[in-house]
Amino acid sequence: MSAVLTRRRPARGKLARHGLAKHRGPAAWLVLAALAVLTAAVLFPFALIALNAFKPPAQYSAHGPLSFPDGFSTGGVSTFWQTADFGRALWNSVLISGCVCVLAVLLSILNAYALGIGRVKGRTWILGAFLVANFLPQEGLVYPLYDMAKAAGLYDTPLAVIIIFTVIQGAFGTYLLSSVLSTFPPELLEAARMDGAGRARILWRVVVPVSMPTIGVLLVFFFIWTWNEFFLPLVFLVSNSNQTVPVALGTLQGQHIMNPLTTSGAALLGVFPTIIFFLIFQRTLTRGVTVGAVK
User: Fold this and answer.
1) How far out from the chain centre does Cα 123 lie?
2) If you ran DSSP here, which 8-state letter would residue 206 be given?
3) Comparing C-alpha atoms, which of 186, 163, 175, 158 is closest to residue 218?
4) Are 102 and 150 in contact (CB under 8 A)?
5) Which residue among 26, 117, 248, 271 is buried most deeply as judged by most CB within 10 Å?
């Protein structure tokens, strides 16, 4: 009898899905069509860049950028890689973005634990200051930061950019995590105190594991935001050996005349690492958003 029921379940599921698809109204199909058009519009530039990055130069000259390649050529990608020393720029971006996302999250956790759970005096004013700091333009910060980096001997070093972006990203992370930890279940904290746990143990054994979805989202966002930064790395990293990927892309186009195939290869190499990073941590983002919706 159970075997018969087991066989019938898939069929019942198929009928349910068929019924849902059958009873979709015009509005649902219109939304699906709009999403399909929007997806195509977003993916079209990436597909065009990928096609031109590996298109033979002769075909591009004869048929233009919209033609489908009849061959495979890595000339544009290899020319940009050698001209811009892209391997070094890629390592610099990974190093800076990785250090910033980890250090900024640690700083945000410590600050938010004191503000969200510790309830320090003047908590509202402190969070307001962090919120205002998020709206300060980088152009207004560059002059004092430049003077401090020069005085400390950190100018034209990755460490200067790491410290600056750790503080900048930590201000946003503190504001966000403080709002999350202010609603942390007090029962868990009380149970940990009754078991003899101190403040540090409560933070790392109770608060951090429960808040991991939000922390994971911050890690991903901090990495991508730091990777895409252009203005401050352009000011503080003037040596070619210290430049990040966005700076290398910008300065190379100003120093050299590149053909469209090399430009397409540069754009593809510049955006490819962030896409891979996003796809790897897509489940982390989805989990964080879902937990936030449930709360």
Assistant:
1) 29
2) I
3) 175
4) no
5) 248
Nearest CA among 50, 99, 71, 67 for reference residue 270: 50
CA 49 to chain centre: 21
Asked if residue 146 has pLDDT above 50, the reply is yes
Residue type, 25: G
- Residue ranges of domains in the chain: 21-73, 85-294
Structure tokens at 154: 């950190």
Do 87 and 81 form a contact (C-beta atoms < 8 A)?
Answer: yes
Classified by CATH at the fold level, domain 85-294 comes out as MetI-like fold (1.10.3720)
Closest CA to 89 of 235, 248, 228, 239: 248
Residue found by looking up tokens 């503000």 in the block: 115
pTM for this predicted structure:
0.79
* Angle 155-132-163 from CA coordinates, rounded to 5°: 25
Query: In the chain, pLDDT over 70 holds for what percent of residues?
Result: 85
CA distances from 91 to 86, 88, 172, 227, 270 (A): 8, 5, 26, 11, 12
CA 234 to chain centre: 20
Taking Cα atoms as reference points, which of 259, 266, 289 lies closest to residue 82?
266
Measure the CA–CA gap between 278 and 224, rounded to whole angstroms: 8
Per-residue pLDDT tens digits for 65-89: 777 777 777 777 887 788 778 889 9
